[in-house]
Write the structure tokens for this entry.
Amino acid sequence: MERTARVETTPPDAPLPAVPPEVARLLDAMPGQPLRRRPGPSAVTEPPAPATGPAAERTPRCTAALRDRLRTARPWRLLPTPAGTPFTFAYAVVLAVTSLVAAYADPAVVQALQQGSSTDVAHLVRHPVLVLVASALWIAGGVLSPYTLGFLLVLTALERRIGGLRTAGVFLCGHVLATLATEVPVGLAVLTGHLPDSSLHRLDYGISFGVATGVGALAGLLTPWLRWPLLAYLAAVLGQDLLSPYDPLTSWGHATALAIGVATWPALRRWADARQGGKGTGTRAGGPHEARAGRPHEARAGRPQGRGALRMTAPPESGDR
């Protein structure tokens, strides 16, 4: 047998054995003795605490609102749906049908239909209501016209804010008033001899006046950083069209329709506020789906219902818009 001594090693993380009192007094008498320390984890630097106080509360409210809107954005709401925007959806279906007729029907039939729907002076004198309605069933330039995209986006956004009947009223008001504002001067000019008799049968149809009115009306419901750039762009485009010699009557009609839309801002803002108020209280003032906008969790939590409960839980009204 070999005589070997087995040396037991102490793991580095094991606790140190207790030092007898006699040895401890001897070690205290010897200066500069290094002490054995247990290896421990390295110091972890804690992250700085978040800033508190007035400086932390200076986050712009517009930035927070924009972040919330981007987080809850739903792009499909830009287009009409049967349940959300029934007026715009039904109107878009009618325009799609008439656009298909204009594209694939016999050209002679299409010309006769459009001529019969024209809001020229001759038709306005004989059948004013019929031609004012029929002229709004065609898209000048077909379904690929820029007015098609403008119609879908503008009327959808407007109907989601003020409702279908009011959107139809705004569109029809702009369409009728802008048409009369351009055709009545033509009739007077023919009577006074400044224009030939052929001007009484000028072909005039389409949805452009109603779309221009919708754009002007919708601008009043947008935030200022969207409203004023949009109006500046439209003013530049309309100014360029007015300076162009091509179809000046239509250009003046578009400018008139845009001004009519801007003139509806006070009424539209009241309607939009009333619709939002109906959503907050769970009433059906703005549509069939707004009663679900209440607070169902309050009933589950056993809170009191009725007018007193609404006064307790309703948020305070702000001073200005």
Notes: Confidence is low (pLDDT under 50) at residues 281-321. The chain is about 55% helix and 0% strand. Residues 164-191 form the longest helix (28 residues). The radius of gyration is 37 Å.
